[in-house]
Amino acid sequence: MTLASDNILTRPLGLRDGAPSRAARRRAALRPGPILAGAAGAAVLALAGYLGLSDDPLGGEPHVLVPIEIRQPAPDRPEAGAPARGAGEGASRSAGEVERASGVAVTRPDGTAAPDSVVIRVPGAGPVQLAPAPDPRLVERGRYGTLPRIGPDGSRALDVYARPEAPGLERGGAPAGRVALLVAGLGIGQAATQDAVQKLPPAVTLAFAPYGADVLRAVARAREAGHEVMVQAPMEPFDYPDNDPGPQTLLAGARAADNIDRLGFVLGRVPGAVGVVNFMGARFTGEPAALDPVLREIGARGLGFLDDGSSPRSVAREAARKAKVPAARAEIVVDAVPRPDAIDRELARLEDAARRTGFALGSASALPLSIDRVARWSRDLEARGILLVPVSRALRTAP
Fold first, then answer.
1. Do the beta carbons of residue 330 and residue 306 sit within 8 Å?
2. Is 288 helix (H, G, I), strand (E, B) or coil?
3. Which runs of consecutive H residues, i.e. helices, occur in 147-209?
4. Where do runs of H (alpha helix) occur along the chain?
5. With 0-12 CB in 10 A as exposed, 13-18 as middle and 19+ as buried, what is 154?
6. How many CB atoms lie within 10 A of CB 352?
7. Per-residue pLDDT tens for 255-312?
């Protein structure tokens, strides 16, 4: 069977026969008439002519030019209390790592931690530097090599070779006291000498015996580390020769010229020394007749003399005052009893003396135990209000 073109199957659902569709009616309603079409055509031609004659690439579309400023993103600010971060680091660092990276040393009392710090030392231009030794102005040739002398301009080894007193951070703007400490007996045992140079604060003065095979190099290393140095002169004890200080010992019964000659050997062994300290010598330092010419020779060479405090019979300080030689005496021998508790007790006494009088001077030997206890004691000394200074301070201010 053939279907006609207007068959019901070919028409959209719901249309009557011969009726236009809804879409057709809408298109007819929107189709412009002849007059409207003519007006629209004229408008199009006018717009085309404008665009052809105008330089406006936007074809007359409303627009505005706005400058755009490109800014770098601001760095993130760390939150309060956030851990410090290093350059390129994402992980937090401990307080110790931050201190090491910044170069700032923080001193805390034993058993405490941040934020209980009481002393902060900000690094300055660098460690204290000692003057080079020997200074050509301050030396002369002698029988045993180079000997110290007073320079043509009056300069002395005691002043030129002294360690400058570094400013410390002191509680309340002023220290409660100052302590000077001498550690003697260096230059013979290599291990003890190295420990003293490395473990003790640079403000501790080191005294060298004249007998070490490598004493010149040991002295140079100590001075490079910032320690001022002294030389030990062997002097006669009461039980000599059973108790022998060593070759070139100064004797109470010897001629003055012989003792001065032996002193020359001692002085030539330690260049850059600020002065002389006795090694033993309980008998010699108690005999003014033997001691006086030696003290005058020491002063004439621009040096000072330190009595290590080991002999209660010593008259060295009084004899030096009469001879107008810079001299001082250690008030406390901190390791006279070589036990940890005894050394700690004597160091505490030294500290108390500094608080009472403003200054205290002590001495110790280069025993490993003594070096260890002094190093421990000195770690937070400034936190307790005590400033450690070189021994030359006592010699240079002596009356």
1. yes
2. helix
3. 157-160, 190-199
4. 22-30, 34-53, 95-102, 157-160, 190-199, 215-224, 256-267, 288-300, 316-322, 340-357, 368-378, 392-396
5. exposed
6. 13
7. 999 999 999 999 999 999 999 999 999 999 999 999 999 999 999 999 999 999 999 9
Tokens of 40: 């629209």
Say if CB 284 and CB 252 are below 8 A apart: yes
User: Which helix (H) or strand (E) is 150 found in, with range?
Assistant: none
Token representation of residue 146: 């180079």
pTM of the full structure: 0.70
The dihedral of CA 272, 274, 280, 283: what is its sign?
A: positive
Q: Calculate the dihedral angle through the C-alpha atoms of 150, 216, 394, 324, rounding to the nearest 10 degrees.
A: -30
Where residue 60 falls (left for φ over 0; alpha for ψ -120 to 50; beta otherwise) is left
Strands 145-148 and 139-142: antiparallel
In the block, residue with structure tokens 């102005």: 137
Cα separation, 168 vs 324, in Å, equals 32
Residue whose token pair is 């050997």? 265
